[in-house]
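$ ./design --mode recover --in tokens.txt
reading tokens...
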């Protein structure tokens, strides 16, 4: 969907917009079902990248305690408990610029994926930049989805990161797509970006082919010691509008109400679910940010008449079926084709 179309939709009266997004949501999804995902940081802090929002960056002095890669036993224990609490997808994040095949840490990640996958949940990882070889091996090990957020618009991206480019993000997404893994990609709002930056982000996500299967929408959780520590909270109606536009532009994607829910009222979250959000992260903590407690989430979903998506339904989706297919072959074209999505990308310098 093009930027001008998105602007027109976004700027409608709020009730008109969410009525349209609700109708589209019900055409593609069971309106009462919400997917619960569990997220675990398997390697925390010490990241070489300078993302202005992130407490895990080695460039900033934060209170975050650095942790090495967790053991397989620790990770499987957390995943087992998450499944028992209703998680249908287990997401694992590591604070790296990226990983490369043949390294010890990559081989350990593959072993972790195999063990977690044996529990019967979807397995999602976010490991930074990867290429076709790494994507193929992750797919073969049982990864259902790879998370790699584009964060914001290509125009605003140099304002928040200088150690890699927006195109680097697209290259990794292309490698993931070529492997047959599902793409999980969204962004963060509340970093000082404009309305058009947010809509431009949705435009780019909607024009990926295929579109992402999951689109997390994060509200910035300002982290002390980072350049964005003093950013104000996101206005709830701006968030609801973006959720609605994302649902319209990406009708078959799970739109995930991700980080920032501790700063959103119950009524605000209800509006987001009505507008088209149908997935959340649950558990008291995300990678480094606080999250509503499990009991709090269960009470809210129950009061709204929303059901937790069952494991059996999740594992019957195309995401899991795809993981059983033969590894795709990789060509240079699979990467370069995506480079035409964002013409005239600005220089990678922070203003």
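writing sequence...
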């Amino acid at each position: 969907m093009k930027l001008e179309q998105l602007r027109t939709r976004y700027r409608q009266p709020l009730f008109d917009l969410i009525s349209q997004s609700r109708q589209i949501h019900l055409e593609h999804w069971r309106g009462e079902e919400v997917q619960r995902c569990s997220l675990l940081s398997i390697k925390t802090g010490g990241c070489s990248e300078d993302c202005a929002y992130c407490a895990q960056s080695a460039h900033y002095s934060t209170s975050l305690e650095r942790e090495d890669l967790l053991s397989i036993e620790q990770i499987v224990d957390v995943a087992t408990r998450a499944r028992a609490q209703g998680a249908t997808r287990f997401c694992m994040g590591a604070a790296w610029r990226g990983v490369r095949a043949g390294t010890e840490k990559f081989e350990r990640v593959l072993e972790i994926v195999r063990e977690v996958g044996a529990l019967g949940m979807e397995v999602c990882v976010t490991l930074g930049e990867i290429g076709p070889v790494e994507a193929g091996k992750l797919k073969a090990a049982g990864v259902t989805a790879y998370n790699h957020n584009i964060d914001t618009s290509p125009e605003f991206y140099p304002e928040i990161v200088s150690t890699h480019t927006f195109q680097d993000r697209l290259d990794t997404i292309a490698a993931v797509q070529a492997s047959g893994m599902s793409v999980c990609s969204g962004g963060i709002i509340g970093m000082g970006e404009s309305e058009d930056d947010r809509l431009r982000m949705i435009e780019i996500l909607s024009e990926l082919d295929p579109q992402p299967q999951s689109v997390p929408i994060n509200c910035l959780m300002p982290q002390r010691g980072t350049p964005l520590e003093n950013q104000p909270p996101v206005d709830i109606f701006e968030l609801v509008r973006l959720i609605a536009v994302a649902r319209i532009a990406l009708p078959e994607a799970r739109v995930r109400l991700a980080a920032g829910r501790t700063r959103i009222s119950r009524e605000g979250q209800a509006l987001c679910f009505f507008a088209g959000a149908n997935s959340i992260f649950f558990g008291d903590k995300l990678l480094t940010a606080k999250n509503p407690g499990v009991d709090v989430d269960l009470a809210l979903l129950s009061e709204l008449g929303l059901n937790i998506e069952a494991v059996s339904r999740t594992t019957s989706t195309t995401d899991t079926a795809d993981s059983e297919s033969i590894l795709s072959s990789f060509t240079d074209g699979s990467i370069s084709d995506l480079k035409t999505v964002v013409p005239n990308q600005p220089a990678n310098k922070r203003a």
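exit 0
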